[in-house]
Each structure stands twice: as structure tokens, then as C-alpha cells.
Amino acid sequence: MATNTKRAYKLQEFVAHASNVNCLKIGRKTSRVLVTGGEDHKVNLWAIGKPNSILSLSGHTSAVESVGFDSTEVFVAAGAASGTIKLWDLEEAKIVRTLTGHRSNCMSVDFHPFGEFFASGSLDTNLKIWDIRRKNCIHTYKGHTRGVNAIRFTPDGRWVVSGGEDNIVKLWDLTAGKLLHEFKCHEGQIQCIDFHPHEFLLATGSADKTVKFWDLETFELIGSTGPETTGVRSMTFNPDGRTLLCGLHESLKVFSWEPIRCHDTVDVGWSRLADLNVHEGKLLGCSFNQSCVGIWVVDLTRLESYATGTSTKLNGHSELKTVSSGTMPLQNDSGSRANIGQSSVLQSSENNLKASSGRLSVSQNSDSAPKETKSTPSGWSQAHHKGLDLAPIIDLLEIQLFNLVVPLPP
Predict the structure, then answer these.
(1) Model's pTM, two decimal places?
(2) Is the pLDDT of residue 28 over 50?
(3) For residue 259, cis peptide bond before it (omega within 30 degrees of 0)
(4) Of 2.130.10.10, 3.30.70.100, 2.40.128.50, 3.30.1160.10, which CATH number belongs to 8-314?
(5) What is d(CA 367, CA 351) in angstroms, rounded to the nearest whole number?
(6) How far is it between the farthest Cα atoms of the chain?
């Protein structure tokens, strides 16, 4: 293993499954756990930096195509080639839900940031919203003409975005229960999606080798990168909001968007990159090749975009417009090093999903009609700070399914 004096180095590589690995996800809360899914029908849990799995979860009868943690890292959802989704409680190491409804491979899953439900996308072209407590699908969004590869809830939980093999990105309003907008500028299938942590800004990465930035107040294209040398496999905004980190084949690129600029390119030896996450000044990248998983670390404090007086070079199209929501204050990167190798096994937490004060509850007042949101606050964090009322979202979904509002069991 290379020393961490380099800008990028391999932390570890290990055999994760008895056959090919199909998917993986990093735990966003701690960046210390990793879940993988394979052709062997298994879902395996790993402490990053450790050689052996924490848990090996059985139950699926077909290849596992998608996996994801909830925000507390207590639950894992895994979608299979059969279309079935299973939900595991990691603290009890058991299946707590088996959900059926997709007619083909479940290719993506994403948990709501606050509530007890999650979304799934499938090759059957549908996006489904699942209620964890009720054990069923509470809404199906139809509109894609080919499979759904990527899904992501907005940071405030009001919308969900889906990206498909039809090259289209669709924005769905959970409160109104309908399509809000669709973005059609890509010329290849959508492979990854991320939201700016502060501004109403969406980034989409595609097999067409471009990254596109979208203003979510006006729904206009801000600009586009590239084309790059390969398709965009994974992306994540830096938590400070200054740059977008994009994973390509064996490289990382650092972009800003006003105007579109590439600040730096880092050669990284990852193969099929599947997920990126930033933690304590480090970018963690996880890739897979056949039955093996590789974990890579990039020191963000060594990137050119964080050096004083560094000149940036234009890459791609010129600036088209300014994000209408304005720029939030930037935070200085602390430059602290994450001791990723010293991983801890899952621990119980007061804010796990079972005891979360942010869990969704269905309103018992059926006379309260949900209202479609016409405008949004000036930033995701501000919307959350003001106290997002999620009841109308779940009310609307329940009404559409049952035609009445039923109180949740205690």
C-alpha cells in the first residue's frame, strides 16, 4: 500500500464476495462502514480498514444489484435482480422487511433523509416510494422509458430525483405527488446524481462523458463540463460547497461551476468506481473489479483548488448563468486527516432510526389537503432549520394509496 504522503493512495483491497461484486455504498454518517452486494446473492458489511466482514447477510435468491444505508447506518436496503428489496436491521442482524413490486432488476435505492421510507429505481422503468413501517409501496412514479439507474432525495426531503437509461433526469415533487420537471440535455444514460449542500443546485453525471449543473429554482442549465475521456461514474459535492468531485475511470476531477472550470486532475487507480464520500478532509472512493473491492483515499488539502493563489483553467463550456439562490458562506477546509484505517464496528446511537424524532407520521386530520409548494427557501439548510413539515408529503402518498388517512400504529 502506498504511503499517505501522496495525494491519492490505496487504503486496502480485499475479496468481498464468492463471485462478482455488483454494487457497494459507503455509510454517510461515519465513512467507516461499507456495504457490498454480489452475484452470490449476499449482502456483506465491512468496517473500512479491516480485512474481514462484520456481517454476511443472506435472504435474496438472486444477484444483489443495489445497496444503501439509512442516515443512521442502522438499516441497509438491498435490491435484487428479481426486483425484490430486503431491509436488514444491522444491530439485530436480521431481515425486517421483504418488499415486492418491481417487475425487473432493482438498480438503485436511496433512503429519505429524515423519514422512515426510501425510494427504489428499477429496469422496469418505475420509481417507487416504500413505507418501512407499513411494509408496502405507497407511490409509484412512472415516466421513464428505460431503466432507472440513479435516485436521490433532496437534502430537505421535499423532492426525489431519478436518472435513467433513457438519458433523462426527472424531478418529482413528493408533496404534490407528480413530476415537477425533467432535464433532457444528456446524450447518454445517467450514472450519478448529487445536490449542492447549500444551494438549489443539481449535478448530473452521464455515460456521455459530461457533468451538467442545473439551477433548481429556474430549472435552467448552468453549464456542462467536457466531454471527458470516460463516462462519469460517481460524484459528490465537497461539504464546504466550493467544488464538485467527479470520479472517472482511474482519475478524479475537481470542478467549479461559475464558470465551469476544472481545478485539478488526480490519477487514481480505482477500477469500476461505485461511490465517493468526503470525511474530515479526505475523499474516500470505493471501486470493485470482479470479486474484489478497492478502497482509495484522496487528500483534499493537496488539491489545487485549495492552494492559495492557484490559477484555474477553463474546461468545457463557458458560464451560462448564475445560480439564482445565491452563494452561501464558504467554510475553510480544516485540512485534518481522517484516520480511516482505524475503523470502528457499528455502535448503537440515540439518534438511530427506531428512536428518531424526525420520523414521519401520518396526520390524523383527513380534512387537511396537502398543498403543492410553489416556492422554496434560499437554501436546503435554511429549509431544514426552519423546520420542514413532512406530514403533507406522507399524507398525500397515503391518500393516493388508500383514499383515506390512516394513523400509524404506536
Answers:
(1) 0.78
(2) yes
(3) yes
(4) 2.130.10.10
(5) 32
(6) 63
